[in-house]
Amino acid sequence: MNFNEIPLPVSDPSLLLVDDDRPFLQRMSRALDQRGFRVRIADSIAAGLIDVEGSAPAHAVVDMRLGDGNGLDVVAALQKRRPEARAIVLTGYGNIATAVTAVKLGAIDYLAKPADADDVVAALLRSAGFKVEVPANPMSADRVRWEHIQRVYEMCDRNVSETARRLSMHRRTLQRILAKRAPR
């Protein structure tokens, strides 16, 4: 589906894009602007929170991990200021625990990078009753292990030391695992 020719079916096309990858931020900003959104950008959690406090947008696309914190803080702040806002979370570190947390905080979708502008627009404009298809292949053993570690990490409020203690794992080993992308 190509959204370039379709006018946006929303009354308020304001959108906040939060990501610390400058080339991606500029590219996605241009693409969403061409699709009819009025895009504001922020390259940090702090800048995103200031933007939300100033004038909460109707839509937000937020990266999960930024240099100064967790993108879910921006999603939570947006939901407090504007409960009807539609936010999606983008991440290169996708896992079930953070997806569940994102949805609980008010995100309407959770997309793995690389996501293009059409994926983002489709997620933002998708109706509430939309159901995702069940994947044909089950998760690999490595992916199941990764998901378990991520779930415990979220349960420990992203505290590496506590997570390592609960998993009976060396803290530095856990840090290396958390820094890598999820296995397929």
From TrEMBL:
Entry keywords, A to Z: DNA-binding, Phosphoprotein, Transcription, Transcription regulation, Two-component regulatory system
Gene3D superfamilies assigned: 3.40.50.2300, Homeodomain-like
GO molecular function, one term: DNA binding
A biological-process GO annotation: phosphorelay signal transduction system
PROSITE patterns listed in its UniProt record: RESPONSE_REGULATORY
Modification 4-aspartylphosphate occurs at: 63
Name of the molecule in the record: ActR/PrrA/RegA family redox response regulator transcription factor
Organism: Jiella flava
